[in-house]
Amino acid sequence: MDDTFEIPVKYKGKDLHFPARLQTIGYTHRIEVDLYGQQIFLEPDEERNYRAILDPAATQPGTTVDVELLKEIVAAIETIVK
Read out DSSP for 20-81? Predict the structure, then answer.
């Protein structure tokens, strides 16, 4: 079962909302986040902290991911989950 939701993030003085989808995989899960058209997967590690996984094949050439924004998205998810 996959559930869709939005992740609210306050970043650089702006309120942003990113569409996301919860995917259950066996006994674990991952969250697929649409970051301005680029798919980012967030998975919990052994300590239940989230790590970002990017597919280089699906990444548009010449684009970069704002690491600070990605950290804010992870922090928003962790405040909800923990």
Answer: EEEEEETTEEEEEEEETTEEEEEEE-TTS-EEEEE-GGGSPTT----HHHHHHHHHHHHHHH
Residue 57 in this model has a pLDDT that exceeds 80: no
Please compute, for residue 9, the number of CA atoms within 13 A of its CA located in the half-sphere on the CB side: 22
Give 13's pLDDT tier (boundaries 50, 70, 90). very high
Per-residue model confidence (pLDDT) at position 3: 82
Q: What residues make up the domain containing 9?
A: 2-81
8-29 burial, b if ≥16 CB within 10 A, otherwise e?
ebeeeeeebebebeeeeeeeee
Strands 50-54 and 2-11: unpaired
Structure tokens at 20: 């996301």
> Would you say 23 and 44 are in contact if contact means Cβ atoms under 8 Å apart?
no
